[in-house]
Hints:
Elements: H1 3-8, H2 22-40, H3 55-62, H4 67-81, H5 90-118, H6 123-135, H7 142-160, H8 165-177, H9 190-210, H10 215-238, H11 250-266, H12 271-278, H13 280-300, H14 306-328, H15 332-339
Helix pairs in contact: 2-4, 2-11, 2-12, 2-13, 2-14, 4-9, 4-11, 5-6, 5-7, 5-15, 7-9, 8-9, 9-11, 10-11, 13-14
Amino acid sequence: MSSRAVLDAPSVGAPARPTVDKVQVTRGIACLLLVLFHVVGGKADDGLRIADGTVARQALDVLIYIRMPLFAFISGYVYALKPLDPLAPAPFLRGKVRRLALPLLSVTTIFYLVALARMPAPPAEAAAGLLHAYFFSYEIYWFLQAMLLIFMILPLLERYLLGHWQGCAIAVLATFALTVPAEPLDFLSINGAMFLAPFFFIGITARRFIGAPTRKQTMLLLAILLVALALHVYTVATMPPHMGARRGTWLSLVIGGLAPLLLVATAPRIRLLARIGHASFAIFLFHIFFVVGTRLLLDRLGVHTMAVHLLAGLIAAIAGPILLESALTRWWVSRRLFLGLR
């Protein structure tokens, strides 16, 4: 046995500490970025009301390139660990429908009814609005629709395209070319699926054909990422407001593809982040309720300090869904309906 192996071996009698999964850590980082976005607010008149043109707003806007692409990348990376059987895809597809479609319908309904309670509408208009929410992009839940579409076409892609890195590259470039920079309301979030698909396929490629980058490769990829971020800053400075960070640009592909790859390779093994990542699905589904609830409560109490809103919103939007998930998993019906679990 080598001296390195001896040093790495646990001492006799010492309990082995469970390893921290870097993928879960990266999921935890993705959750924090998502929650931060909704606590701060995507517009100058929302959330903490960060004005357009400020450094803080520009820093938040660049996360458009990273936030949802990071979730898509992780989905592709994890999928590649246990892919479907192209000759018998039915069990995989049934599992994805259960895991994504049931929570999509249930949580969309709750979110819509809560919004309806705040802004009532005539019954016919309310019913039409709910049906529209089921079939078109609706609030943050467009992500579930988009990912479900991607999973539905995977059997065909796995059979003819994704078995080699060239095919993965074709899938990345083809879906990137179809990405629409704008974000219109679209049927079953087709535009959202085109936006996420390149990063999903990059995640598959990273797991199947790239592996962990060496130190030199990491430094090179980091340098490319920094150059892309610098170009983004230059673009923002020289173009009209809200024209810098957009979907479907080469900068979005480079930043959204490299940032997740580097995070999975270099993320620190922090147990708290891994715990957050483990509850990422529940956090995605329910964090917005806690963000809005915390904001309304603090406003009702007369608390308007930005730091308090930021800290309280982050804590509530992370801890609240984790506690809610623990409650929902106790019963078969709630576990299946709201989390898509068996």
